[in-house]
From TrEMBL:
<dbReference type="InterPro" id="IPR012373">
    <property type="entry name" value="Ferrdict_sens_TM"/>
</dbReference>
<feature type="domain" description="FecR protein">
    <location>
        <begin position="120"/>
        <end position="209"/>
    </location>
</feature>
<feature type="domain" description="Protein FecR C-terminal">
    <location>
        <begin position="256"/>
        <end position="321"/>
    </location>
</feature>
<feature type="transmembrane region" description="Helical">
    <location>
        <begin position="92"/>
        <end position="111"/>
    </location>
</feature>
<dbReference type="GO" id="GO:0016989">
    <property type="term" value="F:sigma factor antagonist activity"/>
</dbReference>
<keyword id="KW-1133">Transmembrane helix</keyword>
<dbReference type="Pfam" id="PF16344">
    <property type="entry name" value="FecR_C"/>
</dbReference>
<protein>
    <submittedName>
        <fullName>DUF4974 domain-containing protein</fullName>
    </submittedName>
</protein>
<dbReference type="InterPro" id="IPR006860">
    <property type="entry name" value="FecR"/>
</dbReference>
<dbReference type="InterPro" id="IPR032508">
    <property type="entry name" value="FecR_C"/>
</dbReference>
<keyword id="KW-0812">Transmembrane</keyword>
<keyword id="KW-0472">Membrane</keyword>
<dbReference type="Pfam" id="PF04773">
    <property type="entry name" value="FecR"/>
</dbReference>
Length: 324
């Protein structure tokens, strides 16, 4: 069985874990080689966007028991219905015992098909690619690219999340970023891609970027300060142009800047930056203007400054902030 077939078995199962046929195929594949269980557990963690556990905390026995519950099938025998018998092949336990322990700092995984995956959980991180380009990942982001990246092509796929690209110019090898339905192509530039809620947003800081739907000829050329919003399963592209004071890249710079900005827009930026919900019911309060710069401050510090500066009331309960 070749490596491409191996990864197909695991990916198909992860896409449809309730499918009995896929469970059976995965079951047979894991039995073939003790290393296959290790590969499956790693791929499952990366697929779900989970951080890989520290060696000291990796519960191999528990992981195998949980996997076995999903893969083995009760067998009908003469045993009473209240005590079903479960068939399990003995080699599984030997395979489980051979699982390699993985260090907590590991966040890169080479897929059997020749792809390298990088994922972040609550942290942010950066990668220098083989062509010299820099890739900055926001929290809860997963990207992947071929091991041969940079030799004949420079293609990267964003599975989820947000990433900033500072691309080294190579005239003969375009740099292409793919999401499920949108392709972004550049030669040398700096831009940001955010994929969430069935929408892909592309913001250009420098250079020129082409963003297009894969299934149609609909595309847009973006220049510095422009952002395009492309919604999945649609064919429309919305664009807007920001002035120099915007917070599209605040997650990377860790600085929020507001220049005569309405409180409603401030709330939207804070909501995105701190991953919270902000509610403003009073239109007069929402229209208040704010001049402020917040260099990597905590949410509580920012809210306290807004409260004192704009003379508003603010209450915070868990992940909900109300301004009135």
């Amino acid at each position: 069985m070749n490596k491409h077939t191996d990864i197909d078995i695991v990916v198909r199962y992860l896409e449809d874990p309730e499918n009995e046929q896929l469970k059976s195929e995965l079951n047979d594949w894991i039995e073939q080689d003790s290393a296959n269980l290790d590969i499956f557990l790693d791929m499952k963690a990366m697929w779900q966007g989970d951080p890989l556990p520290a060696a000291s905390s990796y519960d191999t026995h528990g992981q195998w028991q949980e996997l076995n519950k999903q893969l083995v099938t009760p067998v009908t025998t003469s045993t009473p219905a209240s005590a079903p018998v479960v068939q399990m092949k003995r080699r599984y336990w030997w395979a489980a015992a051979a699982v390699l322990l993985i260090a907590a700092t590991t966040w890169t995984f080479f897929w059997p098909g020749g792809y390298q995956t990088f994922a972040t959980n609550q942290q942010r991180d950066s990668i220098r690619l083989s062509d010299g380009s820099m890739l900055y990942l926001n929290a809860n982001t997963r990207v992947r690219y071929a091991r041969e990246f940079g030799k004949k092509s420079r293609n990267i796929k964003i599975d989820k999340g947000e990433a900033y690209f500072d691309v080294t110019k190579q005239q003969d090898v375009p740099f292409i970023v793919n999401t499920p339905e949108v392709a972004i192509e550049v030669l040398g530039t700096s831009f940001n891609v955010k994929s969430e809620n069935n929408t892909v947003k592309v913001f250009v800081e420098s250079g020129k970027v082409s963003a297009s739907y894969k299934k149609s000829n609909k595309k847009v050329i973006l220049t510095p300060g422009m952002e395009a919003s492309l919604r999945l399963h649609q064919n429309e592209i919305d664009t807007k142009t920001y002035n120099k004071q915007n917070n599209v890249l605040a997650w990377k710079t860790r600085t929020l800047t507001f220049d005569d900005t309405s409180l409603s827009d401030v709330a939207a930026a804070l909501s995105d930056f701190y991953q919270i919900k902000i509610k403003i019911d009073n239109p007069k309060v929402a229209d208040k203007k704010l001049f402020a710069t917040f260099p990597d401050l905590s949410l509580d510090e920012v809210l306290d400054i807004i409260r004192k500066t704009l003379q508003v009331n603010i209450t915070k309960t868990n992940d909900l902030v109300e301004i009135y």
